[in-house]
């Protein structure tokens, strides 16, 4: 069984694991003083339609002589998704496709509180080369990996990952609210042509570097220019077109609700990972409808400008929803 072991002067008994519907707030400090942020993932490989085939990676850190999950500290200018992707690349050399947010752990390190956020992430390429941070990686079935882990809390994260693997997800939608635009009172032209302001452009840039971690297959947008320009940098990085469809916008939801619902379901039926950029009326209403007709009941459906919902589907049913309130750097 995993055992308690002190690292970074932390107390295993004081650690807390929180965790299907998850959220990362704009301020992820949870109100705690002097937080230190970190992020990582349960790395996996195998056949996603056969959970019994899945193996996960456990890393050995020579500095601590322990077996743990891949993670690392946030660098200035990053959000937590970027941190997880960068740290995994640096520690393991692997390319990944991030998927489900598992939750966070927190524990005391001296007079600070360390908060670590974890995802599941499929390894899609790359090669491990032993380094100063990680000198060995073992790929194991989940139960064997759990026994190897040095820390009870890492085992708890792995238990959450196992539950996610047991439910086969065949589609994801990254549902993006457009970035902040010029205020209506300062824009005299067609509202559909109202552009992003300086912050909105920054949000679009950060979305491009952040959502690449999920390896999208296609990019859709509602008709307003502020929606299209929010996801255009991402589409450019991926080498994909932005497919514009009025049915993804607010007006269609108000005037053609059933058509808008059917169009969204068509995207889900395509499988893989899709990005849809929408507006402030349609996004909460669409997610509420998906929740009411799926297996994931929720009560709140925020959609701040520049935010992202990572929606997971199994056979057309909503089974996971992770809300990222902001992709701007964590302060």
Outline the low-pLDDT stretches.
Answer: 1-14
Helix segment tally: 8
Radius of gyration: 20 Å
Class by alpha and beta content: alpha/beta
Beta-strand percentage range = 25-35%
Percent range of helical residues: 25-40%
What is the 3D form?
Answer: globular
Spell out the helices and strands N to C. EEEEEEHEEEHHEHEHEHHEHEE
- The pLDDT mean sits at 92
Major sheet size, sense and barrel closure: 8 strands, mixed
Which assembly state applies to the chains in this document? single chain
Count of DSSP E strands? 15
End-to-end separation:
38 Å
Report what the structure shows.
- The protein has 331 residues and is α/β, with parallel strands linked by helices.
- 28% of the residues lie in helices and 32% in strands.
- It contains eight helices and 15 strands.
- The strands form two sheets. Strands 1, 3, 4, 5, 6, 7, 8 and 9 form an eight-stranded mixed sheet that branches. It has a seven-stranded mixed sheet with strand order 2-15-14-10-13-11-12, with helices on both faces.
- A hairpin with a 2-residue loop joins strand 14 and strand 15.
- Helix 2 (142-148) runs antiparallel to helix 3 (152-166).
- The protein is globular and about 65 Å long.
- The protein starts with 15 loop residues before the first strand and ends in a 7-residue tail after the last strand.
């Amino acid at each position: 069984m995993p055992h308690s072991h002190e690292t970074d002067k932390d107390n295993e008994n004081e650690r807390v694991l929180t965790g299907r519907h998850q959220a990362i707030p704009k301020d992820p400090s949870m109100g705690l003083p002097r937080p230190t942020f970190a992020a990582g993932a349960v790395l996996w490989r195998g056949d996603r339609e056969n959970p019994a085939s899945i193996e996960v990676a456990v890393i050995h850190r020579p500095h601590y002589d322990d077996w743990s999950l891949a993670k690392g500290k946030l660098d200035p200018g990053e959000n937590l998704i970027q941190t997880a992707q960068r740290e995994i690349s640096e520690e393991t050399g692997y390319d990944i496709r991030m998927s489900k947010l598992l939750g966070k752990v927190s524990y005391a390190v001296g007079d600070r509180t360390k908060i670590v956020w974890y995802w599941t992430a499929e390894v899609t390429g790359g090669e491990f080369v032993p380094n100063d941070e990680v000198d060995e990686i073992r790929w194991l079935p989940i139960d064997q990996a759990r026994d190897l882990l040095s820390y009870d809390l890492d085992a708890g994260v792995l238990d959450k990952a196992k539950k996610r693997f047991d439910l086969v997800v065949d589609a994801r939608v990254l549902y993006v609210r457009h970035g902040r635009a010029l205020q209506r009172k300062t824009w005299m032209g067609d509202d559909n042509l109202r552009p992003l302001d300086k912050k909105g452009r920054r949000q679009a840039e950060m979305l491009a570097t952040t959502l690449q971690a999920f390896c999208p297959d296609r990019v859709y947008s509602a008709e307003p220019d502020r929606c299209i320009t929010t996801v255009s940098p991402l589409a450019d990085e991926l080498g994909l077109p932005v497919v514009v469809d009025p049915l993804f916008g607010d007006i269609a939801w108000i005037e053609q609700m059933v058509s808008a619902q059917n169009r969204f379901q068509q995207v889900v039926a395509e499988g893989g990972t899709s990005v849809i950029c929408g507006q402030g009326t349609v996004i909460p209403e669409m997610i509420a409808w998906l929740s009411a007709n799926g297996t994931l009941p929720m009560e709140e459906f925020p959609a701040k400008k520049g935010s992202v919902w990572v929606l997971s589907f199994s056979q057309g049913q909503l089974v996971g929803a992770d809300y990222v309130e902001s992709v701007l750097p964590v302060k």
